[in-house]
Amino acid sequence: MFATLRSTVSRVAASMLAPPPLLRKAERGFKFHSKMGRGWSHRVAMMKNMVTSLIEHERIKTNLTKAKEVSRLCDRMVTWAKRGDQQGYRKVARYVRTRQCITKLFTILSMRFKERQGGYTRVLKTYPRMGDHAEMAFVELVDRPMLRMPYALPEQPQSVMPGRGGRSWRVGKRQLNDERR
After folding, report:
1. SS3 state of residue 15
2. Domain map of the chain by residue range?
3. Is beta strand 121-125 parallel, antiparallel or unpaired with respect to 136-141?
4. 85-102 burial code (b ≥16 CB/10 A, e <16)
5. CATH of 40-147, one of 3.90.1030.10, 3.40.50.1000, 3.90.1150.10, 3.40.50.10190
6. Burial of 52 (0-12, 13-18, 19+ CB in 10 A)
7. Which residues pair with 59 in a beta bridge?
8. What are the tens digits of pLDDT across the range 119-173?
9. Percent of the chain having pLDDT more than 90?
10. pTM greater than 0.85 (yes/no)
């Protein structure tokens, strides 16, 4: 009985004297949903560069996994910028690389998204990449101004006989029943 009491007291005393455990890397800042085949420092550096590019150009193209991570991180940056205080500036400055992008975030983008309560970015899937068939996507800021009008589609000519665009029309006047063997 005394042995268990002595060990319990020593464990409690040791826990009171021990320094607090250090925070793990995932708890220190942004937590990723995917590893993306990279180490922690490479992932963080890549996300910082991509967030800076997204704020600068307002639309970037990347693969789908990175697009979802960048979208989450950029939404947080806009939320912090909308606060407009010193703490928000410091949090944004940890992830955005250039002063021009920080200024744009705190002036132009915070005014643009003043009434919006979230969902500042949009992820649009596009065609797979040619080399490795990876899923690609565009990440863009919502409500961004259109720089140029999209091209108008040329008017498509109507078929000669509407409703007759199939194989039976293409083969001409032959009967398809004659082709059976």
Report:
1. helix
2. 40-147
3. antiparallel
4. eeebeebbeebbbeeebb
5. 3.90.1030.10
6. buried
7. 140
8. 999 999 999 998 899 999 999 999 888 777 777 777 766 555 555 555 555 555 5
9. 53
10. no
Distance between alpha carbon 164 and the CA centroid of its chain, in Å?
45
H or E element, residue 106: none
Q: Which of 75, 164, 67 is nearest to 119 (CA)?
A: 75
φ, ψ of residue 124 in degrees (nearest 5): -110, 120
Q: What are the CA-CA distances from residue 66 to residues 23, 27, 50, 54, 106 (Å)?
A: 25, 20, 9, 12, 24
Confidence of residue 3 (pLDDT cuts 50, 70, 90): low
Tell me what the mean pLDDT of segment 38-42 comes to: 88
